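Re: beginner question about structure tokens

> Can someone show what the tokenized structure looks like for a real chain? I only ever see the sequence side.

Sure, here's an example I had lying around. Input first:
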Amino acid sequence: MEWLGENRRFQIWEYTVSHGQLLLRSPLEDGHGTRLDILFKDVWFMHLAAASQVEAIEEVGPEEVARLGGALAEEALEGGRRGYRLRGPQGDGLVVAGVVVVNEDRLLHNEPTGLKVWPMRSGANVPPAQ
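And the corresponding structure tokens:
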């Protein structure tokens, strides 16, 4: 997965420990014509600022995961999880997760995400498809 788009400010919008879900959001109000939600599922490791500029999200291999997050991040790759570097002008973040999905819409910052999340305040509390 690689997302290359305009440099946008993302915030950690919500994290649910029990389901390992991390929702990052770039609100419509930040001067963009759309709101962008990025959902990571099966999250085992993250190294992120609470809010940061992101230029690209790209999948990286074990060597880069270890460089960005150390041995703990590298161990999180077990079970088929992948490393995702969030590249930005102030530095790189890292998330190790099973899957990442992106949703772009024109909703306001406080409206639920269009992604299937469970259970998060930001979603419609619809269980993911089995």
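Each token stands for a local structural state, so reading them left to right follows the chain. The radius of gyration is 14 Å.
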